[in-house]
């Protein structure tokens, strides 16, 4: 079977890490969320390629093996939208089916709204359509102890995550997100405190997967990931 190929593509002022498999005029472009990377889509990429599509997944700027922007604190979702369109340009692709998960869905919606001529169709997971605006996440009130509320606070998640190694942070987030209901932290708790260290990983997320994610977040850190989409 054909293997997923990896390249670095110049996109605007940065080089983005791009994974690709398959060939032909029909293209599927995958947008990951947090705490994810291109690797999230590896199975879907192979499935799409086997159906005759050119399947492409990339690490967003500031994530995984892609380069970090010079001023991550100024980044917005629109940077990811512009990156996606520029990536299509760099790869010589006129139009693509876009698949987005988590905040990748928000980026996918915006590509469709702002650049409809570049989109064949959009499929999203986990995030409904929200009318584009300057503060998509911030404009939807949530409990103070909810993870999104906490991660919006400058420095709070950084201090919380900083108590642990990267692998433990990723493990804890995936355990947290795998619950049927995400718990709310008390005033004297941080988000990482909500996870019992003895809790096993969800069955669909292996130790090997964890190692891959952790190795790439060790490279990129969490600075950009907390800025986009949470701040």
Automatic annotation (TrEMBL):
AB hydrolase-1 domain sequence ranges: 27-133
Gene3D superfamilies: alpha/beta hydrolase
Keyword field contains Ribonucleoprotein: no
UniProt GO molecular function: hydrolase activity
Domain of life: Eukaryota
Annotated keywords: Hydrolase
Recorded family membership: Belongs to the AB hydrolase superfamily. Epoxide hydrolase family.
Protein name as annotated: PREDICTED: bifunctional epoxide hydrolase 2
Organism field: Prunus dulcis
């Amino acid at each position: 079977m054909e293997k997923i190929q990896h390249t670095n593509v110049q996109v605007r002022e940065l080089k983005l890490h791009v994974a690709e498999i398959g060939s032909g005029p029909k293209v599927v472009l995958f947008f990951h969320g947090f705490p994810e990377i291109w690797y999230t889509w590896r199975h879907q990429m192979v499935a799409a390629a086997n159906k005759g599509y050119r399947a492409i997944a990339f690490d967003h700027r500031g994530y995984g093996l892609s380069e970090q922007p010079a001023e991550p604190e100024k980044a917005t979702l629109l940077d990811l939208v512009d990156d996606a369109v520029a990536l299509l340009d760099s790869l010589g692709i006129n139009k693509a089916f876009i698949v987005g998960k988590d905040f990748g869905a928000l980026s996918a919606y915006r590509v469709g709204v702002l650049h409809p001529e570049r989109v064949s169709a959009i499929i999203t997971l986990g995030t409904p359509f929200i009318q584009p605006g300057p503060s998509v996440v911030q404009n939807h009130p949530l409990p103070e102890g909810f993870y999104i509320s906490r991660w919006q606070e400058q420095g709070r998640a950084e201090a919380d995550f900083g108590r642990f190694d990267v692998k433990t942070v990723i493990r804890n987030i995936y355990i947290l997100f795998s619950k049927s209901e995400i718990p709310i932290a008390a005033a004297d708790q941080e988000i990482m405190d909500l996870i019992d260290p003895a809790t096993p990983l969800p069955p669909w997320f292996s130790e090997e997967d964890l190692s891959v994610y952790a190795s790439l977040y060790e490279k990129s850190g969490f600075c950009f990931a907390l800025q986009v989409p949470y701040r």
